[in-house]
Design goal:
The protein is α/β, with parallel strands linked by helices. Helices cover 31% and strands 16% of the residues. The chain contains 18 helices and 20 strands. Strands 1-12-13-15-17-16 form a six-stranded mixed sheet, with helices on one face. The protein has a five-stranded mixed beta barrel with strand order 2-3-4-7-6. It starts with 5 loop residues before the first helix and ends with a helix.
């Protein structure tokens, strides 16, 4: 891969200016590790998150890029060592097998060691198991007989604050504004006696999450549910039917928007320029079946059954002046197929956008309102004290917004202490003990006219539905978790109108999945992160990428109707581990509020202030 130019690096690092020596070092890193400019930017984002807690003020200087080089070199050496089996792997294994630990029979470890077999005993000597049991150790001396065993989650186990909690309390960037839109406008003034905000959820789900919709992917989402959702088994025929209907829906809109008599079959030879609609696929040119790293040379166009019998054809984009493509994207293309073996794209047409909701929902006398949006995780990586959530609730109580959106995960399955088995509490118990008291405090402190919404996450341990889409948290579950009555739950994704302003919320990191799969050339929206969010609006879909990554939650084809946008949103909220942003494109606000905590440091949240139409005209 040729090394990127300094201009390409500056374009990727658009939010920060690269000095001359930093640019030289960046180009050298790309040459050494065979990286593109976008790959280096992703590695830089990873470095900032891991080493600096996601602090956006960290600049890519030459010294920090040298640290990135060292990180890449260590990663390369680690992978190489794993392939070779390690330099002293057999000796280390032998030493571990010869290791013997003497246990006191009066201690808990000694008692457990005498009750288990040899193979189980070896397992109990792993660091994480020893750490769990060690917290219960009573010792062998006389003074230990009066000691009481405790759970690691009881206050006595956390009498000493963790080092990260101390660092979090002493952080210096508290309240720092990372990004803003229309910052020149004066702040809105909310009346002391507020009117209740008008809230309407579009495509609402039933309150009982046991039944969230029928199995028909093209069903009307406004109808009540009739069947249980089957998310552990899907027929291939259902998935192909869902793909076919997505292409057909957009093809009908393109035909009506551009007044085209008939769309062409791109797999047939065409000497003249024709317009075709199909789905982008990324396939290796070797066997035509396996997936390959995304590039402009591995693109295929897949047709619907009606427009091209579902066939695929190689797509040549060398003549297209501008494009931004990813696997699963439905596109409208003007081009030619001279020999019947390849479709040459000349221009990618903009897809028709969805209409807004009916004007009668946009009241002219709607009151101004404010909202706060935050996304989990809400605790640091080495404890369950939820310091970021406490600060967030304090901030919400001080500002008293009209709506508060709290997006999961609340108890994340990827938390290091849960993965390492360092707690004896169940996820529901953690939520009830550590989170619900702050939700109660928030609900009691806000005005009665304010609304508080919880949105589930695919990484949430307290939600039994790990696939996407997700229903709202059931009333029974909210009661079990101790959530107060004034706090409600939305589905994931959700579209909700507040005083006529349409919010679209998708709580899955689709931006991080898209950033690794997109290929572009001089796109209309040059800012990369907002462009990734715009793909959701243009595709009318909350997860247009196909196929999803292996580590991603299952995307249900049978529930595709609930992944489609009902209408054009005014504000699109897509939380991601990528850098937070707020951007306006085509009068749509694209917002990534970031995460409330990032590893061992604090994160970010978003504040939204919406003026009434009368104030805007004046």
């Amino acid at each position: 891969m040729p090394a990127p130019s300094e201009t390409e690096l500056q374009k990727e690092f658009c939010s920060t200016k690269l000095e001359a020596d930093a640019s030289v070092e960046g180009i050298s890193i790309c040459q050494t590790f065979d990286l593109s400019a976008s790959d280096l930017f992703i590695r830089w984002q990873t470095f900032v998150i891991n080493r600096h807690g996601g602090d956006a003020s960290v600049q890519p200087t030459r010294e920090r890029l040298l640290e990135v080089r060292s990180m890449l070199q260590q990663e390369l050496e680690r992978k190489s060592s794993q392939r070779r089996g390690g330099p002293n792997g057999s000796a280390i294994k032998l030493a571990r097998h010869k290791e013997r630990v003497q246990y006191d029979k009066n201690s808990v470890e000694g008692l457990l060691q005498g009750m288990v077999s040899g193979s189980q005993r070896e397992f109990m000597k792993t660091p994480q198991s020893t750490k769990r049991v060690g917290l219960l150790k009573g010792g062998s001396g006389p003074a230990s007989h009066g000691r009481v065993m405790f759970s690691p989650m009881t206050p006595s186990a956390f009498a000493e604050p963790s080092p990260s909690a101390i660092r979090y309390s002493k952080r210096t960037n508290v309240g720092h504004k990372e990004d803003s839109l229309n910052s020149g406008l004066p702040p809105i003034t909310l009346p002391e006696t507020r009117k209740p905000i008008c809230v309407f959820e579009h495509g609402a789900r039933p309150a009982d999450s046991e039944e969230i919709g029928s199995d028909e992917s093209d069903s009307d989402s406004s109808k009540p549910a009739a069947k249980r959702m089957r998310y552990m088994f899907e027929k291939i025929a259902m998935r192909t039917e869902t793909v076919n209907k997505r292409i057909e829906r957009i093809a009908i809109n393109v035909k009506a928007e551009y007044k085209i008599e008939a769309l062409a079959n791109p797999t047939y030879p065409h000497q003249n320029t024709v317009t075709a609609v199909g789905r982008i696929m990324n396939i290796s040119s070797d066997d035509g079946q396996t997936a390959a790293p995304i590039s402009s040379d591995s693109l295929y166009l897949e047709t619907s059954r009606r427009l091209g019998n579902g066939r695929r054809i190689p797509l040549d984009v060398r003549s297209a002046p501008s494009f931004s493509l990813f696997p699963g994207q439905v596109v409208a293309i003007e081009g030619k197929n001279l020999k019947g073996t390849e479709f040459s794209a000349l221009e990618f047409r903009q897809l028709p956008l969805l209409p807004h909701f009916p004007s009668n929902e946009r009241k002219e006398d709607a009151s101004p309102f404010s909202a706060m949006v935050a996304c989990g995780p809400y605790t640091l990586a080495d404890n369950f004290e939820y310091e970021p959530l406490i600060d967030l609730v304090d901030k919400a109580i001080a500002e008293a917004p009209c709506a508060v959106f709290l997006l999961g995960p609340f108890v994340s399955e990827s938390h290091p202490m849960l993965k390492g088995g360092q707690t004896d509490m169940l996820p529901e118990e953690i939520f009830r003990v550590k989170i619900s008291p702050h939700l109660i405090r928030l609900r009691e402190s806000l005005p009665s006219s304010a609304s508080v919404f919880l949105v589930p996450s695919t990484d949430e341990l307290c939600c039994s539905y790990v696939s996407f889409p997700q229903p709202p948290l059931s009333n029974a579950l909210l009661s079990q978790l101790g959530v107060p009555a004034g706090v409600s739950s939305l589905s994931n994704p959700a579209q909700i109108s507040i005083n006529g302003v349409n919010f679209a919320i998708s709580n899955i990191d689709v931006l991080f999945h898209l950033v690794k799969e997109e290929v572009s050339r001089l796109p209309v929206l040059s800012d990369r992160l907002p462009r990734l969010a715009w793909h959701l609006v243009e595709q009318h879909h909350f997860y247009p990428l196909s196929p999803p990554p292996v580590e991603c939650a299952a995307i249900l084809a049978s529930q595709d109707a609930k992944l489609r946008m009902q209408a054009m949103p005014d504000i699109l909220i897509t939380p991601s581990q990528l850098k937070q942003f707020a951007h306006i494109h085509e009068n749509i606000v694209l917002l990534n509020p970031g995460y409330s905590s990032k590893g061992l440091s604090g994160g970010t949240f978003a504040r939204i202030c919406v003026r009434s139409p009368n104030d805007i005209r004046s």
